[in-house]
Design goal:
The protein has 204 residues and is of the alpha/beta class. It contains 6 helices and 6 strands, in the order E-H-E-H-H-E-H-E-H-E-E-H. It binds flavin mononucleotide.
Amino acid sequence: MKILGIVGSMRKNGNTYKVVQSALEGVREADPEASCEIVNISDFRIEPCRGCYDQCSSQPYHCVLEDDFAALCEKMLRGDGLILGSPKYFPVPATLTAFMERLVCLAYSSDVDGMGEHIFKDKPCLLVGVTGGDEPIQLLQHLFHFALSMRMKPLQLTDYPFYGVGGKGRVTEDEDLKPLEQARKMGRELVEVLREKNGNLPHC
Ligand SMILES: Cc1cc2nc3c(=O)[nH]c(=O)nc-3n(C[C@H](O)[C@H](O)[C@H](O)COP(=O)(O)O)c2cc1C
């Protein structure tokens, strides 16, 4: 089982990283053989989408801009499950926004041109949203909307903030939302969802 954690913050080892890392610990608890990778969006050079729709459809699943978009997209594709974390900016960091925009070329290829199913269809994902103090629900709704538009299956929490794991302020000190604890729990749940999706096949 391969799980990719994407840290959408421009800060390495910050709050987002800690929560995504904790979710991956939960994954490893539930499946010690899981292959987990964590990447920082700040290590990728990703330009904003230029909206050249014709180019998307002439070369399906391919963006004409040459930067690190394809490399990150490939990693996402190879993962059985995804953990996507972001801090609240306006609403998310510019590089993450650019990545989300660029992924639209995939939807454009599959939906608009009838190329078949979206390549991320039904990929289970766990969303993480951290803020400096605001309630994280709007940020998580933004990420949730993105995940749905990519035809992914975002996991939901039974309690607030519902759309994913939320944290406020320093995540190590957040006794209200307990993001590290929640993330670990949801990481374990992500493994269960993947096992169910794969028909409970024994690990070999
Ligand atoms: C450009 C920018 C905009 C931000 N906007 C908000 C905001 O509107 N509301 C909020 O609660 N925190 C805001 N923050 C704070 C971050 O969301 C918060 O510090 C978060 O924990 C940072 O996560 P990181 O350590 O993973 O980078 C902003 C931070 C930056 C740099």
